[in-house]
Write a structure and sequence with these properties.
Radius of gyration: 17 Å
Number of strands: 6
CATH class of the largest domain: Alpha Beta
Oligomer: single chain
Shape: globular
Number of helices: 9
CATH topology of the largest domain: Rossmann fold
Structural class: alpha/beta
CATH architecture of the largest domain: 3-Layer(aba) Sandwich
Order of helices and strands: HEEHHHHEHEHEHEH
Largest sheet: 4 strands, parallel
Strand content: 5-15%
Number of domains: 2
């Protein structure tokens, strides 16, 4: 953990000239490993089984609930609202049990303003930040999460980065995005932001 904190201090120094930082919620901001969001996968499969929806083998084997949500959106959009509500509930529970990620407090208190983006519901992000970082919450300018079961908003996508740039009144190239996965870096580059 000491190495991770040291790495975040180096990152904070490197971002000293950054005006606005976009942080990915899952991974860099929130460690969901205590109660992973993947617990929702079983619930989404149960929803599909209860409706008699046959699942392709690859979808049945998927451990990622977002893969199931994409399938539901494509194959049975009539179940999308129920699937979204179930996934939201599981994300809120996972965020309520999540541990703080090392160094995030340093970034939240740094010179750059911060926004949090992610493919989880905004209530999970808000609840997590209010629980673990109540004093730093006013430093978070935007929370952009998944609103509804729209496959275009599921990662990896540049849409949240472009939304943040528009809401902040600037171009995406003026933003720095911190993420954990290669797909997130590609999405930032597609939006014209530095990652």
């Amino acid at each position: 953990m000491h190495q991770e904190l040291a790495a975040f201090h180096v990152l904070a120094d490197a971002l000293a000239d950054c005006e606005h930082l976009l942080l990915q919620f899952r991974g860099p901001v929130c460690d969901l490993s205590v109660r992973p969001v993947t617990a929702a996968t079983g619930r989404l499969r149960d929803l599909l089984d209860g409706q008699g929806v046959p699942l392709p083998p690859a979808v049945r084997a998927a451990s990622d609930p977002y893969a199931l949500l994409r399938f539901i959106l494509a194959a049975c959009p009539g179940l999308a609202a129920r699937a979204e509500a179930e996934l939201c509930q599981q994300e809120i529970l996972a965020a309520a049990a999540a541990r703080p990620s090392p160094g995030i407090r340093t970034l939240l208190e740094g010179p750059a303003s911060v926004s949090i983006i992610g493919d989880v519901c905004p209530a999970a992000i808000q609840g997590y930040l209010a629980r673990l970082y109540p004093r730093q919450l006013d430093r978070v300018r935007l929370i952009i999460g998944r609103l509804g079961a729209d496959p275009a908003l599921l990662e990896p996508t540049p849409i949240p980065i472009l939304q943040a740039a528009q809401l902040l009144g600037g171009a995406a190239r003026g933003l720095r995005r911190g993420g954990q996965y290669p797909d997130g870096i590609r999405a930032a580059r597609q939006a014209g932001a530095r990652a």
